Automatic annotation (TrEMBL):
UniProt-recorded name of the protein: Proline iminopeptidase
Record gene name: pip
InterPro entries from the UniProt entry: AB_hydrolase_1, AB_hydrolase_fold, Peptidase_S33, Pro_iminopeptidase
Family of the protein in this entry: Belongs to the peptidase S33 family.
Reaction catalysis annotation: Release of N-terminal proline from a peptide
Record organism: Lentzea pudingi
């Protein structure tokens, strides 16, 4: 772990559609470029990533995707339209940011939703990617979204009943993410508040393996809880704005790009199968399976150590 140095540069980039994305650069301006694609969707960048990169060697870029973190307008405001917040918009934003910073190629790092976005970006812009590191691998397929919003009910029936019952009865057998997104965009603030609460209780339980106590988590903040629920349900309710097997069908575009996939065998929200199948189709990627890890990266756990080792390998 390295000291969490302050950024040497930061700014707001106008990417069109009335959107401005926040970015920051830390480490060495002439160092090897690396960029973190954060998860969520909608979680915002985490400065803790600076501790994983030697500031004397790397030029580390963090950015907030549309609607979250310090990017504007914020999805926390229910009046903010989500019309121009899609996967393709985020891919285009990342490419505009790379060009704005004058970077030829960068290493991409990110897990969960960040991994889906990384893979989609790299498929479209393979010549701009030097290496890829992905912990907690996902690909945004409908089968994955169905699993996390419904299939996991077999492991957490108590939490799932509460989650399903949070939407109107006529929506309970359909797309639960889309049903929640309608509630989260209701003109009634009480409806929005309850939907964000119910969605977040389920979300947290699937990440932790059953513990959905908000205490000490980001979900304890009502504004952050609402923004996350609204953004995630917006993407999941629209199948991540990707064709069902888009990433799997286009992995040949990554040929020649070295990758390290890191996945916990106990990841309830993102079963190992996705990482396994991607590794088989991407010959330049290595899969690291952690028997004692789940979905969450925590300081000092095996996932954290594996990420640190991967970054060092691509140094």
């Amino acid at each position: 772990m390295y000291p969490q140095v302050e950024p040497y540069a930061r700014g707001m980039l106008d990417v069109g559609d009335g959107q401005q994305i926040h970015w920051e650069a830390s480490g060495t301006p002439t160092g090897k470029p690396a960029c973190v694609f954060h998860g969520g969707p909608g979680s915002g960048s985490n400065p803790r990533w600076r501790e994983d990169f030697d500031p004397t060697h790397w030029n580390l870029i963090l950015w907030d995707q549309r609607g979250c973190g310090r990017s504007t307008p914020s999805a926390t405001d229910p009046l903010t339209s989500m019309e121009h917040n899609t996967t393709q918009h985020l891919i285009n934003d990342a490419e505009k940011l790379r060009e704005h910073l004058g970077i030829d190629k960068w290493m991409l790092v990110g897990g969960s939703w960040g991994s889906t976005l990384i893979l989609a970006y790299a498929i479209q812009h393979p010549t701009r990617v030097s290496e890829i590191i992905i912990p907690a691998v996902t690909a945004g397929r409908p089968v994955e979204l169905e699993w996390i919003t419904r299939g996991l009910g077999m492991f957490f029936p108590d939490h799932f009943d509460a989650f399903r019952d949070g939407v109107p009865e006529h929506d309970r057998d359909g797309n639960l993410a889309a049903a929640y997104n309608r509630l989260l965009n209701s003109p009634d603030p009480e409806v929005r508040y309850k939907a964000a609460w119910d969605w977040s209780k389920w979300d947290l339980s699937t990440i932790t393996g059953g513990d959905n106590d908000f205490t000490g988590t980001r979900y304890d903040n009502p504004e952050e809880r609402y923004r996350l629920a609204r953004t995630v349900s917006h993407y999941w309710g629209n199948d991540c704005f990707l064709e069902p097997t888009y990433i799997f069908d286009n992995l040949n575009a990554l040929r020649g790009i070295p990758g390290i996939l890191i996945h916990g065998r106990n990841d309830f929200g993102g079963p190992l199968y996705t990482a396994w199948e991607i590794a088989k189709r991407w010959p330049d990627a290595e899969l690291v399976v952690l028997n004692d890890a789940g979905h969450v990266i925590m300081e000092g756990n095996s996932m954290d150590k594996a990420i640190t080792a991967a970054i060092h390998r691509f140094r």
